[in-house]
Amino acid sequence: MTKLSPDSEEMYHMQAALVLARRGLGRVWPNPAVGCVLVREDLGSRVVGRGWTQPSGRPHAETEALRRAGKDALGATAYVTLEPCSHHGETDACAEVLVNAGVTRVVVAIEDPDPRVSGQGIARLNKAGIRVSTGIAAEAAADVNAGFVSRISRGRPIFTLKTATSLDGRIATASGESQWITSNLARRAGHLLRANHDAVMTGIGTAVSDRPRLTCRLPGMEDRSPVRIVVSSRLELPIEHPMVETAREVPTWVYCVEGERAGRRLELEEAGVLVIGLTVDEAGRVDLGAMASDMAGRGLTRILVEGGAELAGGLLRRDLIDRLCWFRAPVLIGGDGTPATSSIDVEVLDEAAAFTRVSISAMGADIMETYVRRN
Length: 375
Known about the structure:
Strand content: 15-25%
Distance between the termini: 42 Å
Low-confidence stretches: none
Largest sheet: 9 strands, mixed
């Protein structure tokens, strides 16, 4: 086997830690999804422990990796995708745990933006005489925890708009038929997206017309269904809706205008739905900016948007869409079909929401493209 250079070896182990970190996406909020790999360089760079943040955010990745390594952690190098925490909560601080385990070096991808940590974890390691390196695979690590970073730094989660359209950008025919534009393979990819987001959101129009369950139904991943959110300014969500009927099995939230339809609100709450009343915008609907702030306050970091044109347009008008996951089927529907978004008030090209494509994949006959918002 070809021996890696020191720089290449660091990148190799950090990439492995990032793969572990991604296992936690959608399952660890409000905590970040972190991966940790423990390596004994004196034993030929042998990996002695691996860990990732567990469901609900505890235990942390470092604790898991150290548990698996046992006594072999002594003298190891820890590769961690996010700065080890330095504050004591339900468990001991990860920086302290690493010190007590006797690791001799810690390689950190990015610092933690949480003001309770933000450099203090690294400072604790340095104080204990542990060598610390930072910045390895920083861009990839920031991408994994973009939602967590956004919640801390911007006070809102990141929003990914997922849509399935024809080649000419239509989500339904003129008669409203939309199931199914894309293939079964593309729909399975959509279910996987649900599994790695904290919540999946739709508007009341889509909720009523399509009656979606918004669960992850991939074999073996049924327990990965995220929180389901419906934006329904006037609380029009029927009590007989599938999401209401299963609200005690899969968390279901409804955002509405504060004070709207007290009787319906009580019925929904008695069925297990969390109803959240917010201020109104200039059009008399739920203020989407206030909604984003409320989501962050409740710990959500990653929201998958599966709504129709109105919800997509509203979020775009408020500059709340950070990413796109666009499925395209090789069909044309025409100008009388329903567009992917409603008006977003763009009059000149400089005002258009601009994105950069980061990947493109074939899904049978369909295409899946992913984009990130340009700063």
